Amino acid sequence: MTYDASVQKDGDDSTTSGGSRPFWGRIVNWRPYQGLVAIVTVSPRRQFFILVAFPVLWLLTQHLGPMLQMLHVSLLDAYPVAPGTAHTFTFDNYMRFLGDRIFWQPFFRTLTFAAVFTFCTLIITYPVAYFLARHVSRKNRMLMLLLLLIPFWVGEIVRTYAIMILLGNTGAVNQVLKWVGLIDRPIPFMYTSFSMGVGIVYLTALYMLLPLYSALEKLPKSYNEAAADLGAGAWTRFRRVTLPLTLEGISSGCTLVFLISTGFYATPVLLGGPSTTVFAETIAGFFHVAGDEWPTGAAFAVIMFAGALAITGVFQRLMKALRKGDTA
Amino acid sequence: MNRGNRVALACCYWALVVYVFVPLILMIVMGFKDSKFIGFPIQSWTLDWYAGVFSDAEVLYTFGYSVLIAVLSTLISVIVGTWIAVLLEGRKFWGRAVMFGLMVLPALVPGIISAIAFRIYARWLGIEPGIGAIVWAHAVHNVPFVSLVIMARLSTLPKSQIEAARDLGADALIAFMRVTLPYLVPAILGASVFCLLLSFDDFVRSFFLGGYEPTLPVLIFAMLRSGMSPEINAIATAALVLTAAIGIWAERFTRQNSKESQV
Predict the structure, then answer these.
(1) One pLDDT digit (tens) per residue for chain B, 263 residues
(2) Of A304, A314, A323, A322, whose CA–CA distance to A70 is shortest?
(3) CA-wise closest residue to B142 among A62, A306, A157, A204
């Protein structure tokens, strides 16, 4: 089988590269190219520096640069700096956050919501990942996973809109409830933390499902069988074997989903109401006006990023301690 | 006992399928409703909303504008992402861990913060809000996804193949072009499609870095602020069909390819 395939491949190669070999040959014999190679490959060291220069430049200016510039602007008293005046650094923008209830209320609400939604996503997707990894044949597994992937190729706004239609006063859920006879007046699902939760879990479920699935798939079945032979019941097997060994997947899935959840802007605007204003809306508010409020907005963004990172940091520490405690 | 477990877990799976599919199906169905009001019951059907949307020059222009942004940003992301991946994979050097951390940074920054940071940086660089700024922001944001996919593929490339090419007289560049790059093609295609979809679907960066011309998600958002209407369903359905079709095609393509390379 393998032998056949390799023979066939070789046959293919000779037919396709018949035309391209002169091309590469000509390139190699071309004077300027030889000169270039001579310069580039004087030493492995020179070769490495040429390979490394562009990525380093890109990472520093494009990946790190925007974050540093945001930090810089957050410390300015005015932006853009008026010509002829010196930069004045100040912590006023950060102080403004501490000074007003209307700022830290959405801040803590965002972090709480993100934590609750992350937990909901975990509860919803863990059984599904477990089912796919344990109870489905290898052949069907990819198909069933693919079925779940399809909706996740659709954009954030389109899916948010779909949730609006689902939960509206004349939406499908209310119609079904009315038809069953449970209610006679529509329940106002929309513009509440509930509708926001339904939307955000919808958007993040995949980012939880995939790490959980890969963690569960890696786990050998024999571990569970050994535990069963030693007399452990189904629940004990799950609690003492499966769960501890998938903590790493849980930890990375939760971290990812939590960070993504704190960053949503359009979904809370469309699905939430006045009582569910999140910090993203507060931050965005500073950027809709001309430009003099940018430093405050930047400071608030820094605060939010720091807050989210602090929570994920503590969470990861906890999970690590839990893992250690279990193996000890 | 085991059987009951299995059934319960299967129910969880199908419940999730219902959760992720039903909203989209409802949205598609609503686009054919012959009434301005979104909601049930549906008395009669029509194709008027689609006809209206597809003869609307602004909508068509926005569609093309979004596709153009997706293609341009994907080109940049793929080149840069591949370069970074080739540098980071299978090489040990001082500062590699730091570089890896910096590489994944844009993927981990929450959406709104990333949009704000790009907005501030674009202004500092003097890039006006508009297509240039959006393409740049999408490109930077998508680089980590490309690099991670390419690194995963590179880690399975047998070193002996490159050594064989070098022994046969190829210099490093030729060996890269004729051995490494062809080996990476499936991964590059997969990553490209992923970038195209990320860029086409992105709202928050397009919203904060856009000028007066909206991308498709921004247009839908603006229309939604003034109320739901079946026209939005028609536009959203068109976007959905496009993205889902590309996604499914790419999935099939990469699976076929990985099967071939396994033989």
Answers:
(1) 467 788 889 999 999 999 999 999 998 988 888 777 766 667 778 888 888 888 888 899 999 999 999 999 999 999 999 999 999 987 788 888 999 999 999 999 999 999 999 999 998 898 888 899 999 999 999 999 999 999 999 988 888 888 888 888 777 778 888 888 889 988 999 899 999 999 999 999 999 998 888 999 999 999 988 888 888 889 999 989 988 888 888 888 777 766 555 43
(2) A304
(3) A62
Residues B120-157: b if buried by 16+ CB within 10 A, e if exposed: bbbbbeebebebebbbbbbbbbbbbbbbbbbbebbeee
Residue A277 DSSP label: -
Contact (Cβ atoms closer than 8 angstroms) between residue A178 and residue A288 = no
A137: three-class secondary structure by DSSP:
coil
- Which residue in A2, A51, A151 is closest to B20 by CB distance? A151
Tell me the C-alpha distance between A320 and A66, whole Å.
31
Residues in B closer than 8 angstroms to A305, CB to CB, are 109-110, 113
Cα separation, A301 vs A279, in Å, equals 9
Q: How far apart are CA A107 and CA B205, in angstroms?
A: 21
Q: How far apart are CA A95 and CA A312, in angstroms?
A: 24
Token representation of residue A167: 């939960």
Question: Which CATH homologous superfamily contains domain A93-327?
Answer: MetI-like (1.10.3720.10)
Residues 250-279 of A with CB under 8 A from B: 256, 259-260, 262-266, 270
**Identity of residue A216:** L
- The H or E element spanning position A67 is helix A65-74
Cis peptide bond upstream of A55, omega within 30: no
CB distance B254 to B184 below 8 Å:
no
Alpha-carbon distance of A156 to B226, in angstroms, equals 18
Cα(A46)–Cα(A26) distance, integer angstroms: 25
* Biggest distance spanned by C-alpha atoms of chain B: 74
Q: Report, in this order, helix, strand and coil percent for chain A, each rounded to 5.
A: 80, 0, 20
CB of B13 closer than 8 Å to CB of A144: yes
Q: Tell me which residue of A167, A147, A195, A172 sits closest to B26, measured CA to CA.
A: A172
Tokens 């700096």 correspond to A81
Task: Tally C-beta pairs within 8 A across A and B.
Answer: 250
Answer whether A283's CB lies under 8 Å from B112's CB. Answer: yes
The CATH homologous superfamily to which domain B48-262 belongs is MetI-like (1.10.3720.10)
> For chain A, how many helices (H) and strands (E)?
17, 0
Identify all chain A residues contacting B203, using CB atoms and an 8 Å cutoff.
155-157, 265-266
DSSP letters for B7-62: HHHHHHHHHHHHHHHHHHHHHHHHTTBSSSS-SSPP--B-SHHHHHHHT-HHHHHH
What is chain A's Cα-based Rg? 28
